[in-house]
Amino acid sequence: MSYAKDVLAMVKAKNPGEGEFLQAVEEVMESLEPVMEKHPEFKKAKILERIVEPERVIMFRVPWIDDKGEPQINRGFRIQFNSAIGPYKGGLRLHPSVNLGILKFLAFEQVFKNSLTTLPMGGGKGGCDFDPKGKSDNEVMRFCQSFMTELSRHIGQFTDVPAGDIGVGGREIGFMYGQYKRIRNEVVGVLTGKGLNWGGSLIRPEATGYGAVYFAEEMLKTRADSFKGKICVVSGSGNVAQYTVEKLNQLGAKAVTLSDSSGFIHDPDGIDADKLDFVMELKNVKRGRISDYSMKYKNAKYYDGQKPWSIKCDAAFPSATQNEIDADDAGTLLKNGCYVIAEGANMPTVPAGVKKFLEAKILYAPGKAANAGGVATSGLEMTQNSERLSWTREEVDTRLHMIMQSIHESCAKAAKDYGQPGNYVVGANIAGFMKVAGAMMDQGLI
User: What is the bridge-based pairing of β-strands 231-234 and 315-317?
Assistant: First the structure.
């Protein structure tokens, strides 16, 4: 076997039962085989063996009291995967599905995603199996305070800077930041996604969705095409999906779907700015279900328990969660004429689906490239915090746009250099890897 395949076999033996992590590692290892042939020094230094092993895994108990006065216990995690090019950076996820394997996959992906941003950030991820849905504000606050009481021992502005992820929005970041300040007696940029009045950055909520559309726009330019008049399907209905729709509207496209864990809505008239305002109120403030959309807008139809991939479209933006597009879904998208896919979520397409997209030679952008806008703007928030400055909306958006153009250029160049032009999966994996591997080589046996 090749060096990369040997390492993959070792990872599978050492990490049984961690399906998402093994899926992420296998995709990267397949892409890196030609790199290893060209750079035998990486094999000699055992870079692959080191890069697949987290630098640190922290797991802890999170006790808190619910509104009935009953003690509740959850399990918290922080995976500090690689700090070769900067402090660990990556979100915190609050969801019942959270476990070690999922967070290791997310942290591993984050290493390469952060490398692509051009900013000095390592990769990490964390979270807890706590479910904020259905909890009161006071319950969420008590949980977040308990969670941060332990997490605060392991993070810091020069060490590890978490952000939000699924289940962690402005409310949760606020509670966690307040507890960090209380314990550490420090007013520093230790979390990103903060409120604008206390260190946050303009464009941060919009960044992942905007970035995915900016990346897709760059792919379309390679075919002398644009978003004007394109029909787009979007999954999810949180920040990523909401601002994907907003940017698509601004570029002249028509987004026709949104979803949540219960099902999806299809609005053939398009989700315009007024309808999007309703969605934002529904999901961000009322914390309601997307089915309510079809009750307000009668031309829209709600599909209970289904995903939006059966709707005919030109472009798709999976923005909900991992592995939401299976092989059949991928086939359906292609059959219905979809030729642009930019992943707003992390690894939302199963390997068999990715294979179909690549074989069809459509414009397909993997999450580690397409959704890097969120962490890129988190990096810009860190810079503003260090400078004690707040940049304008236009300045942050311009920097974000430039970063996404740079990521596209890096991925396209790496794919072409290694004989697979147009393959953004290979391009993203190689471009992200080379920077981290070079830093590890320079710093000795770390």
Answer: parallel
Average pLDDT over residues 157-185: 96
For residue 354 the two structure tokens come to: 């990715």
pTM of the entire predicted model? 0.94
Helix H, strand E, coil C: the string for the chain is CCHHHHHHHHHHHHCCCCHHHHHHHHHHHHHHHHHHHHCHHHHHCCHHHHHCCCCEEEEEEEEEECCCCCEEEEEEEEEEEECCCCCEEEEEEECCCCCHHHHHHHHHHHHHHHHHCCCCCEEEEEEECCCCCCCCHHHHHHHHHHHHHHHCCCCECCCEEEEECCCCCHHHHHHHHHHHHHHHCCCCCCCCCCCHHHCCCCCCCCHHHHHHHHHHHHHHHCCCCCCCCCEEEECCCCHHHHHHHHHHHHCCCEECEEEECCEEEECCCCCCHHHHHHHHHHHHHCCCCCHHHHHHCCCCEEEECCCHHHCCCCEEECCCCCCCECHHHHHHHHHCCCCEEECCCCCCECHHHHHHHHHHCCEEECHHHHCCHHHHHHHHHHHHHHHCCCCCHHHHHHHHHHHHHHHHHHHHHHHHHCCCCCCHHHHHHHHHHHHHHHHHHHCCCC
pLDDT at 1 over 70: no
Q: Which residues contact 392 (CB under 8 A, 6 or more apart)?
A: 202
Domains in the chain (CATH in brackets) are 54-188 (3.40.50.10860), 207-370 (3.40.50.720)
Render pLDDT for 288-347 as a digit per residue (tens, 0 to 9): 999 999 999 999 999 999 999 999 999 999 999 999 999 999 999 999 999 999 999 999
- Closest C-alpha to 287, from 267, 261, 309: 261
- The residues near 108 (Cβ < 8 Å, ≥ 6 apart) are 21, 24, 25, 28, 52, 81, 123
Catalytic-residue membership of 125: yes
Beta carbons within 10 angstroms of residue 181's beta carbon: 16
Marked catalytic residue, from 125, 135, 247, 283: 125
Q: How many whole angstroms separate alpha carbon 112 and alpha carbon 372?
A: 10
